[in-house]
Amino acid sequence: MKTARQVLEHKASHAIFSIPPTATVYAALQLMADKGIGALLVMEHDKIVGILSERDYARKVILMQRTSRETLVKEIMTTAVIYVRAEQSTDDCMALMTRHRLRHLPVMAGDELLGMLSIGDLVNDIISEQRFTIEQLEHYITGGSR
Length: 146
What we know:
Elements: H1 4-9, E1 18-19, H2 25-35, E2 39-44, E3 47-53, H3 54-62, H4 73-76, E4 84-85, H5 90-100, E5 104-109, E6 112-118, H6 119-142
Parallel strand pairs: 1-2, 4-5
Antiparallel strand pairs: 2-3, 5-6
Pfam family, one: CBS
GO molecular function, one term: kinase activity
Protein name: Histidine kinase
């Protein structure tokens, strides 16, 4: 079983994208679109103060008939940020994401932000692990004579 840190280490990109709470929602959406991501950490003085997801936008801007150019990130961000420690297992990550219906999970080592895992990162890791197990079992069954 891998840890959150190990999954982060195998991600193609180690970039952490964030935005200040005083930015407009429009600026946040532009950054998410440019980077092809579904959530941003909201950072102030190198501390996480929230997270902004596409879901926040849909529920708190569109459905409330606000405008993204006039609404600030701090007005709609989720402030109760759920995160995992670097040494927690991928099972722990999946359980948290499922229980809280999350798609993104910051990974912390003490007070240091290491990165963010998405549900896609975890699913890709699980598929990779299963593929490896299947190959090992096939090799064992065939006696390595392929």
